[in-house]
Amino acid sequence: MKLRPEIESMVPYRQGKPAAADAFKLSSNENPFEPLPAVREALAATTVNRYPDATAHELRVALAAKFGVAPDEVQVGSGSVAILAQLITAAATVGDEVIYSWRSFEAYPGLVTVAGATSVRVPNTEDHRHDLDAMAAAITERTRVIIVCTPNNPTGAIVTHEEFTAFMAKVPESVLVLLDEAYAEFVTDATAVVGPPLLSQYPNLVVLRTFSKAYGLAGLRVGYALGAEYIMDAARASAIPLSVIEPAQRAALVSLEHEEELLERVHRIAVLRDQVWQALIDQGWNVPKAEGNFLWLPTGEQTAWAAEVFAEHGIIARALAPEGLRVSVGEAGSVDKLLKASAEVVRKLRTASAQPALD
Ligand SMILES: Cc1ncc(COP(=O)(O)O)c(C=O)c1O
Questions:
Q1: Confidence (pLDDT) at 45
Q2: How much is the average pLDDT of 128-145?
Q3: Nearest C-alpha to atom 2 of ligand 1 is from which residue?
């Protein structure tokens, strides 16, 4: 039995490790809050003997109204990662190139390989941000897609409005730009780019968002894209039919109705994030200003060891060797353990190298 060699050589997607009963799972950038009662009620009321609405019509209408676009300029997928896959597959194939910053979201390389296309990874700047000048310079006649992730998973850094518009001025209109804003709702930096209002300016721009993070529906798998109708049609054409299940559509609709309540939770997470960020800076870490619901500890070659220290303290973090450790902002009760672990890592690294931490 023969498989495509590039698929055989891929490492399957690895999820954050499960946590022991007294540990905190801070490895998947999930939302620590339980679903709202209204979401629970909606879930209890959905039927499962029928197929879902294949077009997610009601949800697309609600999202269209929220963003001031037409329903056909919205596509809903089983997580925004599904729409990323659909659009990469729709735009790029063998011999084509997809540019993205690295490190960024772990799923990008696999999605590009599965499409048969070639990844062009542009290293992040020293301060863990997208190097948009280098990304623009990497465009060739083979480039079909560019992914811009803001805030960037895992480094937490944003792309500013100014940087993004300067970048778009250099990108040919024939190249699809996917602005991945999975963590948009957590951003408090006023200089950050905000995708949806820019859609009318750039016909080759698609904005991706999700209900997984700010809305706390990661387990139901529902995300969406906004962009030109013909591009959304291409995403629809390359989707696995009926993959956005009815409970997910219902829960997303109810979440939009209760947005204020959910965004108040997001605000609380962002406040905690800033407190933890400050505490890490005070410990001596060189942590980029975090704008998502996670923090980036540049532990370099010591990443696997640092992850073990965190685990000993009851914190499951995401080890992304050889660059660093990503820790989600979770339950308030996890902060103490997190900061004890980070203090121990910093102390040991300093003793070992007599160098200031880290980077
Ligand atoms: C940057 C980024 N984009 C997209 C996703 C996918 O989110 P989902 O498929 O749950 O909508 C994630 C999830 O971790 C992410 O970090």
A1: 94
A2: 98
A3: 182
Q: pLDDT averaged over the chain?
A: 95
3-state secondary structure at position 178: strand
Residue 286 CA to its chain's centroid (Å): 22
Q: Is 156 in the pocket of ligand 1 (CB under 6 A)?
A: no
Task: Give the pTM.
Answer: 0.96
Tokens of 219: 């387990």
Spacing, Cα 302 to ligand 1 middle (Å): 26
| Chain Cα centroid distance, residue 188 | 16
Best probe residue, ligand 1, of 105, 185, 291, 293 (max atoms within 8 Å of C-beta): 105
Instruction: For ligand 1, say whether the CB of 81 is within 6 Å of any of its atoms.
Output: yes
CA dihedral 67, 149, 159, 70 (to 10 degrees): -20
CA end-to-end distance (rounded Å), the chain = 46
Q: Is the dihedral of CA 244, 248, 253, 258 positive or negative?
A: negative
Tokens of 310: 């965190």
| Residue 164 structure tokens | 């993004």
Q: What is the pLDDT of residue 21?
A: 82
The model's pLDDT over 305-327, given as tens digits with 9 standing for 90+, comes to 999 999 999 999 999 999 999 99
- In this structure, is the dihedral angle defined by the CA atoms of residues 304, 307, 313 and 314, taken in order, positive or negative? negative
